[in-house]
Design brief:
Layout lengths: L1 E7 L27 H8 L10 E5 L3 H7 L6 E5 L5 H15 L4 E6 L3 E2 L2 H16 L3 E6 L10 E6 L6 E7 L4 H10 L2 E11 H11 L1 H12 L2 E3 L2 E3 L2 H5 L6 H4 L7 E6 L3 E2 L4 H4 L11 E2 L3 E4 L5 E4 L4 E4 L4 E5 L4 E5 L6 H11 L5
Parallel strand pairs: 1-2, 1-4, 2-3, 3-11, 6-12, 14-16, 15-17, 16-18
Antiparallel strand pairs: 4-9, 5-13, 6-9, 7-8, 7-9, 8-12, 10-11, 18-19
């Protein structure tokens, strides 16, 4: 049996003004009738393969998480403060190890989209023999273009069918290097999804990140527990260094494998990414309700309330909420994070 670990502490600032501190992107229905968080839960429904998930989240979102997990068994672990993915995963690994140190954890972000969960399940099955033997498993998205906004995993053939040995992790490369990766093969986008035994994670953390390990261990030891809700000790957890699992653990670890997979994956990391979803009209516009374009081409227009009208514009992204409007040319999605920094200074009530 596999224990899913769903990481739900992100703020999704690149999808402002829709994604807010109190209601970030994972809790919005962006690519279907359910939220990204609910879609993530559905991919690993409690049954013959998966145990009930651990959800690592912010207590600020307790009501939303409780509402969106309604009818689905889950243990909620409330991060006392944001410390990036490595301490969050370590919280779950320590909790799982209390019952069985050999528990296999499937770690997934809650804000990604997967259109083919069957392909994900097949990749999990391919990784299981190596993971049961103590390897850390990763999922490499077969690239469709030389994207520079993703990290890459470099693999090489292994003894396992459908699985490659990881040679190295490469952070977001320049375009010319990304082109080389695509041409050479065996380079995959790092989806940030991992399959590992709890004891392997704990051993790596104790060896490579002793300060983090000690802080999280103390936080779990002194945690407040009430049914399926767990509050790690905030003082102890606050002593943990803040770092991603990639930097803190994986880049220095050995015995890591990758399953190349084409599962219709997107991290929906920007409005540019989201603008590719959904049907387009005859002029290439993707529209929500409360939008009325005239002679517009290739626009993404989304409204959460007010009517948006536009005449004769092209290749724009226009998003409106009850209190804010974003207008930008397509291709500018990565600059939204910078814009949010200015909003934080001048209009903190809009975050």
């Amino acid at each position: 049996m596999i224990r899913p670990v769903i990481l739900s502490g992100g703020s999704g600032t690149r999808l402002w003004p829709l994604s807010r501190v109190a209601h970030p992107k994972q809790f919005h229905a962006l690519a279907g009738p359910e939220s990204l968080f609910q879609d993530t839960l559905s991919r690993t429904s409690h049954g013959e393969t998966f145990l009930a998930p651990y959800v690592v989240c912010n207590e600020t979102h307790r009501a939303i998480v409780t509402d969106q997990t309604a009818g689905r068994a889950a243990t909620l672990i409330f991060e006392p403060s944001a410390r990036n993915t490595a301490p969050a995963i370590l919280l779950a690994a320590m909790l799982a190890a209390e019952a069985d140190p050999a528990t296999i954890l499937l770690v997934m972000p809650s804000d990604h989209f997967v259109s083919n969960p069957g392909a994900l399940k097949a990749a999990i099955d391919s990784l299981m023999p190596a993971v049961a033997d103590g390897y850390i498993g990763t999922f490499g998205i077969i690239p469709t273009e030389p994207a520079t906004g993703f990290g890459y995993i470099h693999g090489q053939p292994s003894a396992w069918d459908g699985v490659e040995t990881v040679v190295q992790f490469v952070e977001k490369p320049p375009l010319e290097r990304a082109v080389e990766f695509i041409a050479g093969g065996h380079h995959y986008w790092n989806a940030g999804i991992f399959l590992m035994r709890a004891d392997r994670m704990l051993n790596e953390a104790a060896h490579r990140q002793p300060l983090m390990y000690a802080a999280v261990s103390d936080a779990i030891r002194d945690a407040k527990r009430a049914g399926a809700e767990i509050w790690p000790d905030p003082v102890a957890f606050g002593r943990s260094p803040s770092d991603s699992i990639d930097y803190a653990i994986l880049e220095g670890a050995e015995r890591i494998v990758v399953a190349p997979v084409d599962m219709g994956w997107s991290d929906i990391g920007s409005w540019d990414a989201l603008a590719q979803f959904g049907p387009a009209d005859s002029r290439g516009n993707r529209l929500s309700m409360n939008t009325l374009p005239l002679l517009c081409d290739g626009c993404y227009i989304r409204s959460e309330g007010p009517l948006i009208t536009a005449i004769g514009v092209s290749e724009l992204i226009i998003v409106a909420t009850a209190d804010s409007v974003l207008i930008m040319p397509k291709g500018s999605g990565q600059q939204v994070k910078e814009l949010v920094g200015k909003v934080a200074q001048l209009h903190p009530d809009r975050l």
